Amino acid sequence: MNAPATPQAASTKALECPSCGGAFDLYAAGYSTKHVCQYCGSEIDLSGDETRLIAQHVEAAKALHIPLGTKGVIDDTEWVCVGNIEKNDGWDQWEEFLLFNPYHGYRWLVLQASGWSVGTPILAQPAHPNQSAFRYAGNRMKRIYDPAESKIERAIGEFYWQVKKGDKVKSTSYVGGGRVLSCEMTGDEFNWTLEEFIPSADVSKAFGVEDTGQFPKTGYYPQPHQPNPYGDGFKTSALVAGIAFVAAILVSILLSFEGEERSQAFTANPATSARSFDVGTLTVTGRARPFTITARGDPGDNNWMYLEYTLTNTATDEEIIASQPIEYYYGRDWKEDDRRGTVKISAVPPGTYRLTAEVLLPEDELPGAASRQSSPSPLAISGQGRPVTVVVRSNGTFNSHLVLLLIALFGPVVWIGLRAANFESKRQSGYDGADDDD
Amino acid sequence: MMKVFIVWCVACVGLHATASWYGYSPFGDGVQARNIYSRGGGPTHK
Amino acid sequence: MQPEQNCPNCGALIGTGEPGLPVVTCGFCHSLLSKAGDQLSKVGEAGRVPFDVSPIQIGTRLSVGGVRGEIVGRERWAYDGGFWNEWLLQFPNGEAFWVAEESGSYMVMKEVEATTEEAASLERAYQKGREAMGEQIWIDGTPHFLADTKTVRCIAVEGSLPHIIAADQPRFSIDLRTKKGSVVTFQVDRDGHSLWRGSYYLLADLEPANLRRFDHWSAPSFEVAG
Question: For chain B, which end, N or C, has fewer CB atoms within 10 Å of the first or last residue's CB respectively?
Answer without folding.
Answer: C
